[in-house]
């Protein structure tokens, strides 16, 4: 079943939306995006995503011509047009530099797409058993801006697969930042630690830090690769992923490859939070 | 007048070619390209560009399904369909990761576009008088691969314009690499110097080095910002630009803001070379 898109002012079935070949996202990677999903059919923390998206657009000097209320309205409208309103979906906001006559210089009008996407469920066994990730030396350009520049992540995805890993953890000179599309956390006993710099500030990351503070010590600071040996638990977080336990990093096994108690506790706290947030009555 | 494109096996008018919204170039910047132009209606050094394009595609682990002879054939066909065969055009090769169901993982089939583009002539006064460029600390990711990741170049283009400059010169910790879309050279007397590392290996750069060797000393090596003070002339090169004299870098005036003799000599040598190459009879 085709989803609906919002594209430059119009709501259209996805297969009616096309980009011309001189779009600056296509020709020059001049494009930012954001991605959230619904839980219980409700977008969670939509404002946080919209603020981040606006910041990304402004950082790229792209003319932002659609105000936040209009975007919210269009998201609601797109969600209304879903074939089955009980099924959760992804919501992607994408702003490119627009159609360029010269193939380089940006025109006045950007291209703005909101795309409703089917979610590709992550196998539940991964949550139960945890996953292996590999380390990779790399620092994303402009890490705080959600650019579409994920080519390295795609190349690494293949390398990770060969090593039976599901993701890669980026570091620069040993200083850990984030996974290819997720934020990263470790537990050292009852202290939760997560990198502070050169990361995308995830909305789920923010929620987890707030939730964790009610039960654990929380430190936002640099983590170096050597410190992973002292990790008693590890996990990664993302808007679709939520909390994914990490039980192996390269050859290092975390907590004997078992998902730890604190991670389980956080998973439950986040589930309860998302449930409560999406069942609020105003 | 609309140009023709080659897209995934078909020759079509440009306005009939569109990308679906789940193309990995659009969603994830997973895309490489190359660009050349005709001189005297003839593509120059096409093989060099095709080899570089193939290397870019392979570096990105994208399935390359079209062999070099087929690409050449399609380029010829597209050039044949031009409205006016005496007018020079740009030829852009673009390969994206293809249409992704998940919005991240790459499918088997890439999207391959060859696009004939109108050239946007550079004002001739610039060649006569030389241009100002600004310096900018930045190192392109994967500099030897022609990825579509030019977002920094686009943001800088606006900053340069404000400073009445036409381009920016990238350096990392003072070590100069290249301009946003051009290679960079200086003369120190009769010695021509150009950066060797962390650059895109330009086809025009290669031609110029070969031509210059017949008349000057040529050094391919690191150039640091401080050395610019000793430059007696400077210029940048590109497939469309050919040789553009640079007479000012930030506040530093080169050769009293006059285009130097050696640069003029090279411009003439390149013109003659391009003329001879495009009027060869086999």
From TrEMBL, chains A, B:
Requisite cofactors: pyridoxal 5'-phosphate
Enzyme class label: transferase
GO MF assignments: branched-chain-amino-acid transaminase activity
Gene Ontology cellular-component terms listed: cytosol
One Pfam family it belongs to: Aminotran_4
EC number: 2.6.1.42
Protein name: branched-chain-amino-acid transaminase
Transmembrane segments: none
Family: Belongs to the class-IV pyridoxal-phosphate-dependent aminotransferase family.
Pathway: Amino-acid biosynthesis; L-isoleucine biosynthesis; L-isoleucine from 2-oxobutanoate: step 4/4; Amino-acid biosynthesis; L-valine biosynthesis; L-valine from pyruvate: step 4/4; Amino-acid biosynthesis; L-leucine biosynthesis; L-leucine from 3-methyl-2-oxobutanoate: step 4/4
Keyword Transferase: yes
Organism domain of life: Bacteria
Reaction it catalyzes: L-valine + 2-oxoglutarate = 3-methyl-2-oxobutanoate + L-glutamate; L-leucine + 2-oxoglutarate = 4-methyl-2-oxopentanoate + L-glutamate; L-isoleucine + 2-oxoglutarate = (S)-3-methyl-2-oxopentanoate + L-glutamate
GO BP term, example: amino acid biosynthetic process
Keyword annotations of the record: Aminotransferase, Pyridoxal phosphate, Transferase
Gene3D superfamilies listed in its UniProt record: 3.30.470.10, D-amino Acid Aminotransferase, subunit A, domain 2
């Amino acid at each position: 079943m085709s989803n609906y898109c919002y594209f430059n002012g119009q709501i259209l079935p996805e297969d009616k939306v096309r980009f011309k070949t001189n779009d600056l996202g296509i020709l020059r990677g001049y494009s930012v995006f954001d991605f959230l999903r619904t839980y219980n059919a409700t977008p969670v923390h939509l404002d946080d995503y919209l603020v981040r998206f606006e910041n990304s657009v402004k950082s790229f000097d792209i003319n932002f011509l659609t105000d936040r209320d209009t975007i919210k309205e269009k998201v609601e409208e797109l969600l209304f047009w879903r074939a089955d309103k009980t099924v959760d979906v992804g919501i992607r906001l994408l702003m490119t530099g627009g159609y360029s006559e010269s193939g380089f210089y940006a025109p006045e009008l950007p291209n703005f797409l909101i795309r409703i996407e089917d979610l590709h469920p992550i196998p539940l066994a991964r949550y139960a058993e945890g996953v292996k990730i590999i380390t990779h030396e790399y620092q994303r350009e402009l890490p705080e801006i959600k650019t579409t520049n994920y080519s390295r992540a795609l190349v690494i995805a293949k390398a990770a697969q060969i090593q039976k890993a599901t993701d890669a953890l980026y570091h620069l000179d040993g200083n850990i930042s984030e996974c290819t599309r997720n934020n990263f956390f470790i537990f050292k006993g009852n202290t939760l630690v997560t990198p502070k710099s050169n990361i995308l500030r995830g909305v789920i990351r923010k929620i987890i830090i707030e939730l964790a503070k009610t039960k654990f010590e929380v430190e936002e600071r640099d983590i170096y690769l050597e410190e992973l040996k002292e990790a008693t638990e590890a996990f990664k977080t993302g808007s679709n992923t939520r909390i994914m336990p990490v039980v192996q990093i390269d050859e290092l096994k975390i907590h004997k490859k078992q998902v730890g108690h604190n991670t389980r506790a956080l998973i439950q706290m986040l589930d309860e939070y998302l449930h409560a947030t999406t069942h609020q009555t105003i």
